[in-house]
Amino acid sequence: QLVESGGGLVQPGGSLRLSCAPSDVTWELGYYAIAWFRQAPGKEREAISCITPSGDITNYGNSMKGRFTLSRDAAKHTVYLAINSLKPEDTAVYYCATENLGCTESSLDYLSWGQGTQVTVSA
């Protein structure tokens, strides 16, 4: 199982760094594609960014490109999502998920999910 952390209440224009790590430290995240998704109230879950085991990163969503940065620290078994210039429309629950075969944009392809971390952007 994955565990996300780092969410919270932030003012517009602020920044956050979300973390995603396995609850079982023996689970090697580097064997999987790891993606970040988000889901706002009343909206579908949307892909943000994904990293393959080889380290290739794909970013999704034109409105998010340039403000969202995915990175991985293999030594810490953790994948991060840095978000800059936060906007109220970024308010959502942010999830990480694993996929065996590679990065895809569809949440239906992902096998394991965390419980999510809430990000609220408000003045």
Description of the molecule:
The protein has 123 residues and is mainly beta. The chain is built from no helices and eleven strands. The chain has strands spanning 2-5, 8-10, 16-22, 33-39, 46-51, 57-59, 68-73, 78-83, 92-99, 112-113, 117-121. Strands 2, 4, 5, 6, 9, 10 and 11 form a seven-stranded mixed sheet that branches. The chain has a four-stranded antiparallel sheet with strand order 1-3-8-7, with no helix packed on it. A hairpin with a 5-residue loop joins strand 5 and strand 6 (57-59). The radius of gyration is 13 Å and the shape is globular. The termini are far apart.
Outline the fold blueprint.
Blueprint: E1 2-5, E2 8-10, E3 16-22, E4 33-39, E5 46-51, E6 57-59, E7 68-73, E8 78-83, E9 92-99, E10 112-113, E11 117-121
Parallel strand pairs: 2-11
Antiparallel strand pairs: 1-3, 3-8, 4-5, 4-9, 5-6, 7-8, 9-10, 9-11
Q: How much of the sequence is in beta strands? A: over 45%
Order of helices and strands: EEEEEEEEEEE
- Which descriptor suits the 3D outline? globular
Radius of gyration: 13 Å
The number of strands is: 11
Structural class, by secondary structure, is: mainly beta
Fraction of helical residues: under 10%
Report mean pLDDT, rounded to a whole number: 92
Low-confidence runs: none
Q: Give the number of helices.
A: 0
> What would you call the quaternary organization?
single chain
| Biggest beta sheet summary | 7 strands, mixed
